[in-house]
Amino acid sequence: MSIAVLRTFIQQRKLEHKAMLARQAKAGPKVPDESVSEMEPPADSSQHNGMSSDGCKLLEEMSQDEQCSISDVQTRNLRRKDLELKPARVLEALSASGLRALRYAREVEGIGQVVALDNDKVYVESCRRNIRFNGSVACSKLESHLADARVYMLTHPKEFDVVDLDPYGSPSVFLDSAVQSVVDGGILMCTATDLAVLCGGNGEVCYSKYGSYPLRGKYCHEMALRILLACIESHANRYKRYIVPVLSVHMDFYVRVFVRIYR
Ligand SMILES: C[S@@+](CC[C@H](N)C(=O)[O-])C[C@H]1O[C@@H](n2cnc3c(N)ncnc32)[C@H](O)[C@@H]1O
Fold first, then answer.
1. Measuring from each residue's beta carbon to the nearest atom of ligand 1, which residues come in under 6 Å?
2. What pLDDT score was predicted for residue 254?
3. 95 CA to centre of ligand 1 in angstroms
4. How far is the CA of 166 from the centre of ligand 1 (A)?
5. Which atom of ligand 1 is nearest to the CA of 191?
6. Is 170 helix (H, G, I), strand (E, B) or coil?
7. Burial of 167 (C-beta count, 10 Å sphere; 0-12/13-18/19+)
8. pLDDT at site 203
9. CA nearest 220: which of 236, 235, 198?
10. Which of 94, 189, 213, 225 would give a disulfide with 248, using CB separation of 3.0 to 4.6 Å?
11. CA–CA separation, 259 vs 263, rounded Å?
């Protein structure tokens, strides 16, 4: 299911990017000229900035007009690079052996880097071993770190197009940092396995973790989803962001939601 959602998200992201480019092209001057795209800036960046001794000499010898036209081209090249859609970056914040992160890296086309975190050394070692077992694609796309996911997400704000939270029990302690780590328009995937709490088994615990008081009833699984969504929304709102639910499911012993986060 997560793989299917991720594939759909990546296609949707491409469509949205195309639409954005088309809007900019309609608006006019901001879209760079196609002919400029083939002109890459010099490989040596110091020379590119006119900082090397040769470069300084060159710049001195240039007329004002030439300098203007070169900086024009460079600016347009830079703008063009800004407009390119970069491959989606994924954070599997609670990865254990990295099974899910590996599947994302290997099975989803258009995926960029996948970062797998765990705060347990044994899991990180097994994740690294699994990356090696899975060959060159896995090795080039996946990296595994020993880290507390909350600290990592807080120190990497708006860096990931996709953040996946798959904790033991409640995700509540990870939500505040997770909503900050997703880029605008990115997607947060979140599981909660503490259904007893979310379905009304202990109202006070649910209130303290999720900020909602659950009712007991036949509809308790739908209510569990709504409580989790409301909790994610309230964390997003603290940072002037909001969520758009994409898919919400109750399955076996857990609920899982997929939400896009916008500013
Ligand atoms: C349910 S398992 C993840 C399973 C994994 N997503 C999979 O599909 O195989 C939860 C993992 O979160 C890790 N974990 C718990 N608290 C963490 C934290 N604060 N930072 C990073 N990892 C944490 C645990 O060590 C455990 O490996």
1. 94-97, 99-100, 117-120, 123, 148-150, 166-168
2. 97
3. 5
4. 7
5. 1
6. coil
7. middle
8. 94
9. 198
10. 225
11. 13
- Mutational pocket test of ligand 1: of 92, 95, 150, the residue with most ligand atoms within 8 Å of the beta carbon: 95
pLDDT for res 72: 64
Determine the atom of ligand 1 nearest the C-alpha atom of 149. 20
Q: Atom 12 of ligand 1 has which residue's CA nearest to it?
A: 94
**By the 8 A CB rule, do 101 and 116 touch?**
yes
Per-10-residue mean pLDDT, the chain, length 263 = 96 93 82 44 38 40 53 61 87 97 94 96 97 90 97 98 97 98 97 96 96 94 97 98 98 96 96
Pocket-testing residue among 94, 181, 252, ligand 1, by greatest number of atoms within 8 A of Cβ: 94
Architecture of the structural domain at 87-262: 3-Layer(aba) Sandwich (3.40)
Query: Which tokens in the block code for residue 93?
Result: 């914040």
pLDDT value of position 67: 55
What are the extents of the domains in the chain?
Answer: 1-27+42-85, 87-262
Q: What was the pLDDT predicted at 35?
A: 43
User: What are 164's strand-pairing partners?
Assistant: 92, 189
| Predicted local distance difference test score (pLDDT) of residue 28 | 75
